[in-house]
Amino acid sequence: MADCDLCGVSIPTVCPVKVFEPRFEHSYPEGIWKGLCEKCLDSAKGTFDEKSDEEGKCVPGNKFEKCDLCGTTCQLYDVEVFVPSFKNVYDEEVRHLCRRCLESCNEAYDRKDECFGEHH
C-alpha cells in the first residue's frame, strides 16, 4: 500500500511525480519522486490547465507560502483535493502547489494509464 502525498489516502498504486525539493538539492539534484492518487492528479491537471489559460494575468489571492508538495516558498495555486474522513466519506480541502509542481503533475498525467491501468 502507498499513501498519496497530497490527500493521504492509502491505495495499492500511486502515480509517481518527480518534484524538486530545495532542501534536498545536493542529495537529489534531479528531484524526488512523490506519489499522487488519481483524484489528486486529476485536480492538479485541472488547475494546471486553468492557470495556463491565465498565463501573464495577475491573479489576486495567490499567496507566497510553502508548496504542499515540494516545500518551496513561491507563488502558489489552489488545488482542491478530497481528504478521507471518518465523519464524512471525503472532506474537500485546498492544497497549495507551485508552478513547477503543477508542471510535474501535468507530465505525470500523461503517464496516468501506465500507473492506474485502463480500468480506472
UniProtKB/TrEMBL annotation:
Pfam families for this protein: FpoO
InterPro entries: F420H2-DH_FpoO
Protein name in the entry: F420H2 dehydrogenase, subunit FpoO
Species in which this protein is naturally found: Methanohalophilus mahii (strain ATCC 35705 / DSM 5219 / SLP)
